[in-house]
Amino acid sequence: MNYKINTKFKFSLEILLLIALADCCFYFVDYQEKLFGVASGYDISMIIFFLYFIWNFVRYGTSLFKNKKYKLIILFIPILAVISSISAFINYNQGIVSGLLTHRYWIVISFLYFPISTKLQKGKLKIEEIKNAILVVASIELLLVWLQYFFADKFFFLKVIHNYRYGSIRLYIDYSYIIMSMYICFDEILKGKKKIKNIILVVITILYVIFINKSRMLFAAIIATLSLNGLLGKGKLRYRIIFGAILLTSFSYIMNTQLMQEFINAVVEKGNDPTYEIRLLSQSFYLEGFYKSPVFGYGFPNTSDISAYYSAGIGSGYLVADNGIYGYLFSYGLIGICWFLSLFSIFLKNGFLYYYRNRSSWILLMTAYLIITIATNCTWFFNYYSFYVVLILIFCEYSNLKKENIVINKK
Fold first, then answer.
1. Residue 108 is part of which domain span?
2. What GO terms are given for molecular function (predicted)?
3. pLDDT tens digits for 150-170?
4. Phi, psi of 52 (to 5 degrees)
């Protein structure tokens, strides 16, 4: 199922709806609240994802699992969940069922790899339509978050967490698809496809990071990866020079803003930043747990389990989601690291292949971004945020094609 904006731009409405479900229906719905007093938005959307998988299994049968290049990466996720749940039971008496339940979103989302890949193999879906769906999602999210930013003092129409930093409001959303789209558009610009929509999306994304997201690590990662993208680009020399001048000018300006000055103070003085201090304490705590059980990890904590609240640092304000690779090590140990290295070796290998065969660097740049932000941001292993990883894996599976819209198998 696809939708056509014009003869040249088609996107998969099916993929767009799946992403929207994973992203709290573009944040119009508070997934934390129980709908109709029965189940949370997360659980209802999980049921929809599960039914989508079952419907495709009934439709395609066992072919859903055949000829899938990276199926072992996906199939190992439930094994990680079981190992982590048992470790949590052994180390701090968290119920095994509680441990498995906290992994349910990651497992269901990851298994969407099979129906999406099957549709690509059978010609029911094209990789270009998936890419365009991501661009549409990012455009919608940017529009909504900027509108909310401007009207925040008057009313809130998005169900998002917010606070204040550097004198203005800060909105928290999953920005994975926004960043991915920025790399896709910047890649197109450097290849000579200087369409106005590409330039606008890149500029608006950078402004979003500076004025709305306000994440120091995210900003540093974007500067580093866009610099790498500029070096990889195949565009003419004059465009590289213009790009370099704009990048240096922007960097010079940002270095003199309040945001960057406080960042420097936090790094050099290691003070005046409560989030920095709590992160240091939580990282130390997670490393200590990892050292106690290095092979299988200490176990992924369920925030609603009383044992995890006291023994896994939740009561002290330590959250796995805020501590990147440290929280991941704590939860899954060296077994988890082996899975992580396998996943990212796929991203890197295919990212380079995709660049050398298609002169397209966005997969490589997205991988570099994930590696740079690994200390504080590891959304590729829990909750619904991991769906973008499934989509990257899908792109990697077909990155050896000379053209993205080639159909592999029409049977």
1. 2-397
2. ligase activity
3. 999 899 999 998 888 777 889
4. -60, -45
